[in-house]
Amino acid sequence: MSELSEQAPAQRAKQRAEQREVVLEVEGLVKRYDSFTAVDRLSFAVHRGEIFGLLGPNGAGKTTTIRIVMDIFKADEGQVRVLGQPPEAVRSRTGYLPEERGLYRDQKVLDVLVYLAELKGTPRSEGRERAMHWLERVGLAEWAGKKVKDLSRGMQQKVQFVASLVHDPDLLILDEPFQGLDPVNVELLKELIWELQAGGKTVVLSAHQMNLVEALCDRIVLINRGRAVLYGPLEEIKREYSPRAVHLRTAAPLDGLPPHVVRAEEQEDGSYLLELGDISPQALLRYLVERDVPVISFDVAQLPLEEIFIRVVQGEGPAGAPAATQEPKGGDDR
Amino acid sequence: MNLSKIGLIARHEYGINVRRPGFLILTASVPLLGAITLFVATFFSGQAGQILENVFAPGPRVTGVVDHWGKFTPILPDYQDRFVLYPDEATGQAAVEADEIRRLLVIPPDYLETGQVTVITDEGSLGVADLEESSRLHRFFVDHLLRDFPDPLLRERLGDPIDPVIVFLSQEGAPRGTVDMVVSFVVPYFFSILLIMTVFVSSGYLLNSVTEEKTSRVIEIVLSSVTPQELLAGKVMGLGAVGLTQMAVWLASAGGLASGAVGLLGVAIPLLARPEVFVLAVLYYVLGFLVYAVLMGSVGALGADKQEAQQLAGIFSFLAAVPFFVVGVVFTNPDAPILRVLSWFPLTAPTMMMLRLPQAQVPTVDILVSILGLVIAIPLVLWLGGKLFRMGLLMYGKRPSVKEIWHLLRQA
To answer: Which of A91, A105, A312, B211 could pair with B306 in a Cys bridge, judged by C-beta atoms 3.0 to 4.6 Å apart?
Structure first.
């Protein structure tokens, strides 16, 4: 993880304060195709400077939602405000990397980027300068004069990423940006997204790679069948879906656990997975410290996001409760 | 609508398309083909007969004459290089067999009563096939028959008795001048054919551009930056300019060629004579192009590929050509009800009005209704077309049914 992701607490606190400003607000959005409802009363908000995950299984309504936000589709009901205005009024301040990707194949890379920047209202010379800057950042500067069709698929994808931000947008929407990229380029893209966040940009990210979402996103909304089924800060959601267990590593053999620990299972690496009953992880840690147990590490066990995703989509809530009974968390604290 | 974005798209489309090898080859090929045709035609018109004669009937070019009647002796000085007198058939036939002459004409004593002339030749059928129609032979006979006629003018007229000058009467019964006649025939055809050709040429580029953006998926990025109406308008402007450029090159090259120059002159003179027809023709041309191009672009966007897009857009080319089906009525009764109806309907109005205008004094109401209809139709088709365009472009790999199109229009 880069330095950018390991910011000082004070800096993160300042950033959190800035994040209170709502950059994207979706309120009661509905989009129907005949009898099929693709988006069903969807509401969420994205704050300035955050990386927000728009997640969901295939066909959940993510792309339709994004297209409405980008003013490519019109909603049947509900309201979308981007940077405090209707989407059509702020086209020049939003950037978009669509899932369905493509560029003008017979044109030169730099020409395509400059044209797309101009369409967003960036003056030609400035667009050229920025395009060259970003091409250098993604390692494609020497390909600027080549035709798009001469580039490999991965290279084209990076050019497309550059196209989405060449006009210096305030809000960047990336639909499946990691699809088809090799691990090196995935890392490069992650770094760039963090860099954009550090520069005060807001990023909405739709991706199926849950490990990347976990690494990048501050908050998420999980959509299933057009509805928000999970919404809030990622840490809170993960805590909510915590399996009530801790990972414990000690310098001495473990004995004398309180009766509230239902089960202790020794792992291959010598640590223990303790399943908790009617005791919180904090109380357990206090109990261990009071008894001078030589604790080396103590982690609250969490479900990976992928597992939470599957559980929610398949209809299971936290700790086995049906998800249908779970209301989306009011993660924007409005 | 953002005009600067429309201008940007138009410039982009123009810049990209005029540099395409396909455009350059097609644009250059027409003048090149014209030049070759002109060269070949000039060459053959002057010398083809000679060449054919030399190829198929080589040998002497002189015709022998045995004059039993007497009026062909002596042969007039103008014909002495091609016609030679022989005293009798035997001598003349010997000259034919010796290839000294090409053929022998034996004019009998009763030629005046019968008109019969015996032709002795050793040529194949090709050499004598046009003998009767040959203007040179015809003049030879006429001039010798009338050699004693005192009046040279009358002799000239007898040889070439008619040079028709036709006077057409207008509806009011007054004669119409030649310039007026050219206006009636050339101008409407010129502009209406130019319109249809430009629509065809430009719509080809338009459909190409639309399907390319659709199949390459770049369209979604573009639509996140501009409205579908702006995109469509920009494409129509840019690719219309591409089509006009091509037409201009073709017309200029035609002007550079002798026969084309005459044709263009035939258009230019009447345009100067009837400026109001010219102004209205240009207006209908521009309005017509906008309506057809917007419709073709937006409907073409529904096609899964270029071929399908062309099929869908073809209906509008057909509509533009519909007035040509009733062109006979235009010339006989320019104010017939069917023509008036077609003039009011925006999709047939441009071609119909261009055909009608030079023919007669078209009622002002027809001009106003047709122009008003087009002026209202253009933003309407741009708005509706933009909706279809938006949805069609995002429907990858399939063509919607009519029912789906209706739903698309309602949902977009």
So the answer is: B211
DSSP state of B390: H
> Is residue A65 less than 8 Å (CB to CB) from chain B?
no
pLDDT tens over chain B, length 412 residues: 788 899 999 999 999 888 888 788 878 877 787 777 767 766 665 555 555 555 555 556 788 999 998 888 888 888 888 889 999 989 999 988 888 888 889 999 988 888 888 888 876 654 555 555 567 788 888 888 888 777 878 877 777 777 766 565 555 555 555 555 555 566 556 666 776 777 777 777 888 888 888 777 788 888 889 988 898 889 888 988 888 888 788 777 766 665 555 555 555 555 555 677 778 877 888 888 888 888 887 777 777 677 777 777 777 778 888 888 887 887 778 788 888 889 999 888 888 888 887 766 788 888 999 999 999 988 888 888 777 777 776 665 555 666 666 666 665 5
Contact A102 B216 (CB under 8 A): yes
**What Å distances lie between residue B102 and A318, B92, B93, B156, B201, CA to CA?**
114, 10, 10, 28, 55
The pair of three-digit structure tokens given for residue A195, joined into one six-digit string: 């860099």
Please answer yes or no on whether A119 and B412 come within 8 Å at the CB atom: no
Residue given tokens 């007039």 in the structure block: B76
Q: Closest approach of chain A CAs to the CA of B384, in angstroms?
A: 14
Residue position matching structure tokens 């191009």:
B293
Q: Find all residues with CB under 8 Å of B187, minimum gap 6, and list them.
A: B267, B270, B271, B274, B277, B278, B281, B358
CB-nearest to A116 from B221, B407, B412 is B221
A89 touches chain B (CB under 8 A): no
Q: Compute the half-sphere exposure of residue A280: CA atoms within 13 Å on the CB side of its CA.
A: 4
Starting at the earlier edge strand, list the strands of the sheet with B83-85: B83-85, B63-67, B103-107, B118-121
Contact yes or no for B407 and A34 at CB 8 A: yes
Least CB-CB distance to B224: which of A33, A96, A103?
A96
Query: For chain A, which domains are there?
Result: 3-234 (3.40.50.300), 244-300 (3.30.70)
Query: Which residue of A36, A65, A71, A72 to mutate against B (max B Cβ within 10 Å)?
Result: A72
Residue of B nearest to A90 (CA): B225
The span from the CA of A146 to the CA of A152, in Å, is: 12
ipTM of the complex: 0.77
State which fold the B63-159 domain adopts. Answer: D-Maltodextrin-Binding Protein; domain 2 (3.40.190)
Q: How far apart are CA A245 and CA B172, in angstroms?
A: 105
